[in-house]
Specification:
Layout: H1 4-24, E1 36-37, H2 41-50, E2 57-61, H3 67-75, E3 78-83, H4 86-95, E4 102-106, H5 114-121, E5 133-137, H6 143-151, E6 159-165, H7 166-172, H8 181-189, E7 190-198, E8 203-204, E9 211-218, H9 228-238, H10 246-254, H11 258-268, H12 281-298
Parallel strand pairs: 2-3, 2-5, 3-4, 5-6
Antiparallel strand pairs: 1-8, 6-9, 7-9
Helix pairs in contact: 9-10, 9-12, 10-11, 11-12
């Protein structure tokens, strides 16, 4: 329930957002899915989830008008805000000029080399660290590519606190029975948790769907002891026809005879009539072990995945 103080805070931030856009001759660009957070109560939730200190380097993706960026600058040691929109990047360089610990980078985050970014813009005065956190209100249309960019990087963040679509957050945090390729992939790299749901009215302009603040505690090493490429080739094959029984989807996705798939499933202790969304990541690990042993027994490759895709995480 919103209190009168919360209502006032939301109206105040909304007015400031509209004024700043008008004064700068800017407007929210639908093509870039720009929805500015105008309810300050959710800023505190994001910041509390990030657990920032003056030792932290933070990368913010899509800072927009800098509402979150200012708060990050007050708490972190270094803030690297990466903004694709050149008009917004130019505005941010003006409005955030007083923050010596903050740098605005006009670039597409998906084309940025993370080690280079940290090296070039690290502003700590006491030593060099490659550890960093990601805190961002992510544009909806690049949620999965951005997660992939960070989680698959050689230099991974220690924590990600991101605003994403509510349904995407639910997919990512799903348990067996509702798993997807996205949930397997994110849970392979870290432990995701929904911190709070955020209604559409908390943004200007309001999007068509509600959002969620998602925290991912990124593992130092992946959760499973597998070879990444072949593991996800197997998982992708399993979800290639998600509504089918796992024996059928794997046979189709790997282009394998059913008797070979059945043998792998039985040795992994997985009922062949189950569906991919019911498998836990530990069961996928067991199945990969049998798949890997079968490759060694029958010769490589034992199957040909119909679809591999450019990366591991996608909707």
């Amino acid at each position: 329930m919103m209190t009168s103080q919360t209502n006032h805070s939301a109206r105040s931030l909304l007015s400031k957002t509209k004024d700043l856009l008008r004064q700068s001759g800017l407007h929210a660009r639908k093509r870039l899915a720009q929805h500015f957070l105008v309810d300050g109560s959710f800023l505190k939730v994001i910041l509390d989830a990030a657990q920032l200190t003056r030792e932290d380097t933070v990368i913010e993706v899509g800072p927009g008008l800098g509402v979150l960026t200012r708060e990050l600058a007050e708490q972190a040691g270094t803030v690297i805000a990466v903004e694709k929109d050149p008009s917004l990047a130019s505005l941010l360089k003006e409005t955030l000029a007083s923050y010596a610990n903050t740098v605005i980078v006009n670039a597409d985050m998906l084309e940025v080399d993370l080690p280079d970014l940290i090296r070039d813009y690290h502003l700590h005065k006491h030593g060099m660290s490659t550890q960093y956190k990601v805190v961002a209100n992510l544009p909806y249309y690049i949620t999965s590519p951005v997660l992939r960019h960070f989680l698959e990087a050689t230099l991974k963040p220690e924590t990600m606190v991101v605003m994403v679509q509510k349904e995407v957050a639910r997919q990512i945090t799903a348990r067996p029975g509702g798993m997807s390729l996205l949930s397997v992939a994110v849970q392979f790299y870290g432990e995701p948790k929904i911190i709070k749901y955020v209604p559409a009215r908390a943004f200007y302009p309001a999007p068509d769907v509600d959002s969620a603040i998602l925290r991912i505690a990124v593992y130092a090493e992946p959760a499973l002891e597998v070879e990444t490429q072949s593991f996800f080739a197997l998982v992708r094959a399993g979800f290639s026809a998600a509504r089918k029984q796992i024996i059928n989807s794997l046979a189709h996705g790997l282009d394998l005879p059913k008797d070979r798939v059945l043998s792998m499933l039985e040795k992994a202790g997985i009922e062949p009539t189950r569906r991919a969304e019911t498998l836990s990541i530990e069961e996928w690990e067991r199945l990969w072990g049998e798949y890997n042993r079968a490759q060694n027994t029958w010769g490589r490759p034992i199957g040909r995945p119909h679809r591999t895709g450019p990366g591991l995480i996608h909707k």
